[in-house]
Specification:
single chain, about 25% strand, binds cytidine-5'-triphosphate, alpha/beta, 6-stranded parallel beta sheet
Length: about 425
């Protein structure tokens, strides 16, 4: 019996898929199809897949051409499959020409002509909503949103506005955005989603304006250090039924969610200590203190909770600007210490000590793709990691896409009460005198 194998995502099953399966079958007596698993697609940056795995398998099965269906779950699985299923021929469309030549050592490698004029990408573009993103910025750097949004179907940065014409010029030269606007109001009108990328001093007003116009907003976080303003933004987003989403990519990244699962689910026992330090060397941004504090306070609130008994906050200021802050929170069963260096550099690290294990993230932990788990009584270190290219903005946009599809406006990445609590802490810090 001659066995043939082929692979694909088979999203929005179409004529091209049917044709390749039919022709693949002609190369043998038994056809095996590997359908990509959801995590595998997400890991390789294919974030736009519409149909879930069960639907895609069902559609492949319904062709009546297939003898066996398997799930492709990781990079490098193909060689193992060829050996395991004793495959004679590997068939794939010629969009992959040359990419699988190394498999010819294991079986016949056959590239077939693709069916012209159809693809899942094209069907997704034709059949689903398209969202135009507009950026309002005071810095000539897009935080990779332009490149990363292209990876999520239906999302594209089309518009740009900067108050400072010089910055706008440099930005435009770098990224060549389709539409440049002379007024923020005009850009809002032409956008579905506004990305607010500017210093904390201006964020609140820009966000307010966009929400009032009924637009969804992604904003560099925090929006403000005044809790009344934060409450107002949340209220307005609800009234206008639009999404108000913090640009905190960490919460949309797989490995960070594993860390949360372990700590919140008691897998490292009772948490005794949460300790983190953060500073960034970024001369181009002013008032980074609040951004850095937000990145540190969020995991603390998620892991230790919001019911601390006492907060001891100390700051060092240079004029009005905070250079360094040390925040100590006493919880009923543990303690959290956060050190934030704005002008003053501190070594970046995050450590969570539980009665049954310690988790460590080193260096730029807020964008880390890896953490260590140290178990008591052993010197072994378990590593948990995830791999992806870029800074993870695509995962945040994907989360927004899911919310839009499900008609939800409440983000479960950063909960509303967490956003508010962070701003309340920042407000206190802002009001204390330098010590
Ligand atoms: N295929 C084909 N003809 C097409 C589209 C796909 O022969 N018009 C083949 C591919 O070459 C591959 C298999 O079908 O061997 C599964 O392809 P898949 O990537 O799932 O489909 P695409 O339509 O190419 O999806 P996308 O646009 O998301 O890349």
């Amino acid at each position: 019996m001659k066995k043939v194998i082929t692979y694909g995502t088979f999203d929005l099953f179409h004529k091209g898929h049917y044709n390749i399966l039919k022709r693949a079958k002609e190369y043998g007596d038994y056809l095996i199809v590997g359908v990509t698993g959801e995590n595998y697609d997400i890991g390789r940056g294919k974030l736009s897949v519409h149909d879930n795995l069960a639907t895609r398998i069902e559609n492949v099965k319904n062709t009546g051409l297939v003898d066996e269906i398997i799930v492709e779950e990781y990079l490098g699985q193909k060689i193992g499959d060829i050996i395991k299923y004793d495959v004679d021929s590997f068939v794939i469309g010629n969009d992959w020409k040359g990419k699988f030549d190394h498999l010819s050592r294991y079986c016949n490698m056959i590239y077939l002509e693709r069916t012209k004029g159809i693809s899942s990408t094209q069907l997704r573009e034709e059949n689903f909503n398209q969202y135009n993103i507009g950026i309002i910025c005071d810095i000539e750097d897009d935080n990779q949103i332009i490149k990363e949004s292209k990876l999520v179907n239906g999302f594209n940065v089309k518009n740009i506005y900067c108050e400072d014409k010089k910055i706008l010029e440099i930005f435009q030269e770098k990224y060549n955005v389709e539409n440049v606007f002379n007024s923020y109001e005009d850009m809002i009108k032409k956008s579905d989603i506004i990305y607010v990328r500017c210093s904390i001093m201006k964020r609140y007003n820009y966000i307010l304006q966009a929400l009032k116009a009924g637009k969804h907003v992604i904003y560099d976080s925090p929006a403000t250090f005044k809790s009344e303003e934060m409450k107002e933004l949340i209220k307005l987003s609800k009234e206008n039924n639009v999404i108000l989403m913090e640009n905190i990519k960490m919460v949309h990244i797989y490995v960070f969610n594993q860390l949360l699962w372990m700590t919140q689910g008691g897998l490292i026992g009772d948490i005794l200590s949460f300790n983190c330090s953060i500073s960034k060397n970024d001369e181009s941004r002013s008032n980074l203190f609040y951004d850095l504090s937000t990145l540190s306070l969020l995991p603390m609130l998620k892991i230790m909770g919001q019911d601390y008994e006492k907060a001891d906050l100390k700051v060092t200021k240079d004029g009005e600007e905070i250079e360094f802050a040390s925040m100590n929170f006493v919880y009923p069963k543990g303690r959290a210490v956060i050190n934030v260096g704005n002008k003053i550099r501190v070594g970046n690290q995050l450590e969570i000590i539980g009665t049954e294990g310690t988790i460590r993230m080193k260096d730029d932990w807020w964008r880390s793709k890896i953490f260590e788990l140290h178990k008591p009584g052993t010197s072994d270190v378990e590593l948990y990691n995830t791999n992806f290219e870029g800074n993870g903005f695509k995962y945040l946009i994907k989360a927004m896409s899911t919310m839009l599809n499900n008609n939800r406006i409440d983000s479960m990445g950063v909960f509303e009460d967490e956003s508010l609590k962070i701003v309340e802490i920042l407000e206190k810090i802002n009001n204390i005198e330098s010590k």
